[in-house]
Design brief:
Elements (H helix, E strand, L loop, with lengths): L5 H7 L4 E6 L2 E6 H11 L10 H17 L2 E7 L7 H24 L10 H11 L4 E3 L5 H11 L3 E3 L13 E3 L9 E2 L3 E8 L1 H8 L6 H8 L25 H12 L5 H10 L6 H13 L9 H6 L7 H4 L7 H6 L4 H9 L1 E3 L17 H12 L5 E7 L2 E7 L20 H4 L3
Parallel strand pairs: 2-3, 2-5, 3-4, 5-6, 9-10
Antiparallel strand pairs: 1-8, 7-8, 10-11
Helix pairs in contact: 1-9, 3-5, 8-11
Length: about 425
């Protein structure tokens, strides 16, 4: 979800961090966050299809450095996006923003933060070559990353601001402060970095730790947007005109100091919302706060024994049991989860002129065959992609010819070699 403005707030208030010489430890790695961080920090090409060989070299260097320092990484990737109305709206907003940025990059030649299409594929293949443990979640990975870190009492490596809210025993190592390319030696090799803990944050800002999920939700996220509340008015009088997101969050934190319980804070927050449907907002706030409850880990058994986690309820009826392993290992991409469970997906965005047809139209016959293998006859898939700078959705019918017409997802492991090969 992310807490808007929190990273900026902490940048101006570094007392929530402590310097750390990190080595000889397990480390739970936010895989999606690391992909973006490594690719963009390496200043690799974004506008002409990507520089995958160079990216692979950076991945190898990163994980080799961890091994040299006695650090055992466990990488967890996001899976499908799901179909909740709130998440869908946020996803489509971000997708449209990415389309605009890709258009701007094509016209100006500047880099706009567009990840080339095969970057995550290269990342996954390289981790398998290096024998780095990696798993893909059924949905977003945040809660399972937190669950692993809590179970193993080790830190999470990420720049995602949600991990500033999860109560992690060993804290968060922000990627921006993780100096893996500046290894030092003092009684053994270590990586200089900074560690964040919720206890240090709450001590510095003088709030009760149990109020952190309330703080994150009232600050605004994918579920709740409370722009009508001017939290900056709770700053000292000389600063109340400040408009930055960091100032807004600091005002919210100052307001929260007066409360000791979650219920009292929520009741008081509702009183600040005269122009809103309070019951509806309170329901959304409570739902959003649940996102910061750390569940039991479904991946610990996968990493220790190779046991694939159970499928979520919405996937049980549409995904054969043998597919659990390939999904958990990341052999199938995250958007395939959305195809299998929801018959819906967004197509990749890449830098191209918006006046031209989307390049996603070219491999349409391949996707039609893929959807046949996944869903069979009648399993049409709604695809979202751009037409010009606008988003459109099209229902795609599975199509297949020849011997492949006999193939079904539930029996693919038993298919003989001659059927695998084209006639």
């Amino acid at each position: 979800m992310g807490v808007k403005g929190l990273c900026s707030l902490l940048k101006n208030n570094r007392q929530s961090y402590e310097d750390l010489r990190f080595r000889d430890s397990k480390l739970v790695v936010d895989g999606n966050n690391l992909v973006y961080h490594l690719y963009f920090k390496s200043n690799l090409d974004q506008n002409h299809g990507g520089e995958y060989l160079e990216f692979q070299a950076h991945i190898r260097a990163f994980f080799t450095t961890l091994a040299d320092c006695g650090i055992k990484p466990y990488v967890v990737m996001d899976g499908g996006a799901g179909t909740s109305d709130i998440k869908m709206e946020t996803l489509l907003d971000r997708y449209k923003d990415k389309v605009q940025k890709a258009h701007d990059a094509a016209h100006t030649g500047g880099q706009k933060g567009i990840l080339p299409c095969f970057t995550k594929l290269v990342f996954g293949q390289t981790l398998r070559d290096l024998k780095v443990p990696v798993a893909m979640c059924f949905g977003e990975a945040d809660c399972q990353l937190a669950a692993l870190a809590k179970g193993w009492c080790c830190p999470v490596l990420s720049n995602d601001s949600d991990f500033y809210i999860f109560d992690l025993p060993a804290g968060l190592l922000p990627l921006d402060h993780f100096q893996w390319d500046a290894v030092r030696s003092h009684g053994g090799s270590y990586i200089p970095c900074k560690r964040y803990t919720t206890s240090s944050f709450c001590t510095f800002f003088k709030i009760n730790r149990q109020l952190l999920p309330v703080f994150a939700t009232l600050a605004g996220n994918d579920y709740v947007d409370l722009k009508e509340i001017q939290w900056a008015r709770f700053l000292p009088a000389s600063r109340q005109r400040e408009k930055s997101s960091a100032a807004r969050l600091e005002g919210l934190l100052i307001w929260l100091r007066r409360f000791q319980t979650l219920e009292n804070a929520l009741t008081a927050a509702m009183a600040l919302m005269p122009n809103m449907s309070k019951m509806n907002v309170q329901t959304k706030v409570r739902e959003a706060m649940k996102e910061y409850d750390i569940p039991g880990s479904t991946l610990m058994g996968f990493f220790s024994q190779g046991t694939a986690p159970k499928l979520p309820a919405e996937m049980l009826s549409c995904i054969p049991d043998w597919v659990r392993g390939p999904l958990a290992r990341g052999d199938l991409s995250g958007d395939m989860q959305d195809v299998l469970a929801h018959k819906w997906r967004t197509l990749p965005t890449q830098v191209e002129h918006s006046s031209l047809p989307s390049s996603n139209l070219i491999p349409l016959p391949l996707r039609e065959m893929l959807y046949w293998l996944l869903l069979g006859q009648g399993g049409e898939v709604e695809e979202v992609y751009r037409v010009g700078l606008e988003l459109t959705s099209v229902k795609v019918q599975p199509v297949v010819q020849g011997a492949a017409q006999t193939l079904r997802l539930d029996c693919l492991p038993q298919v003989g070699l001659p059927t695998h090969l084209p006639g």
